[in-house]
Design goal:
Helix 1 runs parallel beside helix 8 and helix 3 runs antiparallel to helix 4. Strand 12 and strand 13 form a beta hairpin. With 466 residues, the chain is α/β, with parallel strands linked by helices. Strands 1, 2, 3, 4, 5, 6 and 17 form a seven-stranded mixed β-sheet that branches. Bound molecules: flavin-adenine dinucleotide. The site of flavin-adenine dinucleotide has 37 residues, from helix 1, strand 2, helix 2, helix 3 and strand 4.
Length: 466
């Protein structure tokens, strides 16, 4: 007899496992199916967590090398890359095991294997030995995430031609690395390998890095990364990538028609990700996809089939772990008869380079396009006492507020701990706050968050420290 569930979640990433836990909390008999060896999805296994671990470790390596400039002498600093990788792997293992514990604690049944539809109420699970188990479900939530895409005709070998997954486990610091794509994943991984000693070249098709980001921040970000030694080749189109056993040549054509060859030891192709639906056998249930092959859903995350839902990277919207999580909670609450909801106007985006970049809400370019009158408040970390005290003064905070109502419409930060500071603005925006609300909130001294307060004051040209 096949086991029966009220809800089955396919995919154990941040969307899927969070959704499964919330469903179980709400009293539904729930299963979660994951095809990887460990839970946590892209985020915990080959995304957010290992990349942040390496960003932190490489930054520490870089900082320690420069401590003598600040009067701290510690002798020769050496890199032990395999130990560094083990430290990163440990962080991944601890967290993925933690998710397994959370599923157990919440009485979610965890099935390891590839889940696919047999019918609208039957899900097949095939384990690594091809043994099939079928379970019965009332509702199914597709949370199968996304996978990296390459350039046409170029395959990842994860030795010389790398996806982000390969870039997280390079065994020797490459002498020269080419990163194709100036988005956040390419820049984060480029930063890691640059700090560890590689000469990093970023090749970008567009005029600016981090497309969609507030232009002023994007330009400042590129300036800072250039100062750190990363080389940028903008408006270059990759034409071919040829490789032998130990090297590759990336051939490009620039906007003026000049041809260039970049010799390198490894190439990271970070030009985007695509929804992961291939193994689901969606034809069996007639679930519709959109023009980008994402699962099509309505605002309640329901597909064109009444009992099948989808969340996270596999549907429209920013490919971010916290967006997937919030959708997981919202869909679980909807299924349980509550009113789950995600506010897409307040989803922060963070790039964990040094300095960090964080952004929320509308950019200046979007406000112009919307013909919304806005005011700008800006404050530089150069004038922030905490930043000065620890000699970490690059970047600024920029707040955009409605010219008439003063409501905060967006905020864009580059600077120390920007990824943490953005949370304050997120809460303010959720409560419909004005820039004056932030400006009149007492912020501890000396903290980086005072730069947020001063930027809010600066919206009405009354910043104190600039
Ligand atoms: C290098 C890198 C760094 C990143 N850094 C950040 C960051 O700092 N912050 C951030 O917010 N986001 C980051 N992301 C993006 C983030 O990882 C994703 O947005 C997030 O993981 C999406 O969650 P998800 O649950 O939708 O899908 P996923 O995390 O992709 O999980 C889907 C899971 O479903 C499984 N699956 C697929 N098909 C089946 C099937 N048929 N049966 C069973 N299981 C299946 C997959 O194995 C996978 O584990 C990063 C991504 C990368 C690659």
């Amino acid at each position: 007899m096949s086991e029966k569930f009220q809800a089955v979640v396919i995919g154990g990433g941040p969307g899927g496992y969070v959704c499964a836990i919330r469903l179980a909390q709400l009293g539904l008999k729930t299963a979660c199916i994951e095809s990887r060896e460990s839970l946590g999805g892209t985020c915990l296994n080959v995304g957010c967590i290992p990349s942040k671990s390496l960003l932190n470790l490489s930054e520490e390596f870089h900082k320690v090398q420069n401590l003598s400039k600040k009067g701290i002498e510690i002798g020769e600093v050496k890199l032990n890359l395999s130990k560094m990788m083990k430290t990163k792997d440990k962080a991944v293992t601890v967290l993925t095991k933690g998710v397994e514990f959370l599923l157990k604690k919440n009485k979610v049944s965890y099935f390891k294997g590839v889940g696919s539809f047999k019918s609208k109420n039957e899900i097949s699970i095939k384990d690594s030995n091809n043994k099939e188990t079928t379970i019965i479900t009332e509702k199914t939530i597709i949370a199968t995430g996304s996978v990296p895409v390459s350039l046409p005709g170029i395959e990842f070998d994860e030795k010389i031609i790398l996806s982000s997954t390969g870039a997280l486990k390079i065994e020797q610091v490459p002498k020269k690395m080419v990163v194709v794509g100036g988005g956040y994943i390419g820049l984060e991984m480029g930063s890691v390998w640059s700090r560890l000693g590689a000469e990093v070249h970023v090749i970008e098709f567009l005029e600016n890095i981090t497309p969609g980001m507030d232009m002023e921040i994007s330009k400042e970000f590129m300036k800072i990364l250039k100062r750190q030694g990363i080389k940028f080749h903008m408006q270059h189109k990759v034409q071919t990538i040829k490789k032998n056993a130990s090297e590759a040549v990336v051939s490009t054509i620039d906007k003026d028609g000049n041809k260039n060859d970049f010799n390198c030891n490894v190439v990271l192709i970070s030009v985007g990700r695509k929804p992961n639906t291939e193994s689901l056998n969606l034809n069996a249930v007639g679930v519709e996809l959109d023009e980008k092959k994402r699962v099509k859903t309505d605002k309640n995350f329901k597909t064109n089939q009444d009992n099948i839902f989808a969340i996270g990277d596999v549907i429209t919207g920013p490919m971010l772990a916290h967006k997937a999580e919030d959708e997981g909670i919202a869909v679980a609450e909807n299924i349980a008869g509550q009113s789950g909801h995600v506010n897409y106007d307040t989803i922060p985006g963070v790039i964990y380079t040094t300095p960090e970049v964080a952004t929320i809400g509308k950019t200046e370019e979007q406000l112009k396009e919307m013909k919304t009158d806005y005011k700008i408040g800006k404050f530089s970390f150069m004038a922030n006492s905490r930043a000065k005290a620890i000699d970490d003064t690059e970047g600024f905070v920029k707040i955009l507020a409605d010219a008439k109502t003063d409501k905060v419409l967006g905020a864009h930060l580059i600077g120390p701990h920007a990824g943490e500071l953005i949370a304050e603005i997120g809460i303010a925006m959720e409560f419909g706050a004005s820039s004056e609300d932030i400006a009149r909130t007492c912020h501890a001294h000396p903290t980086f968050s005072e730069a947020v307060k001063e930027a809010a004051l600066s919206v009405d040209k009354r910043a104190i420290h600039s």
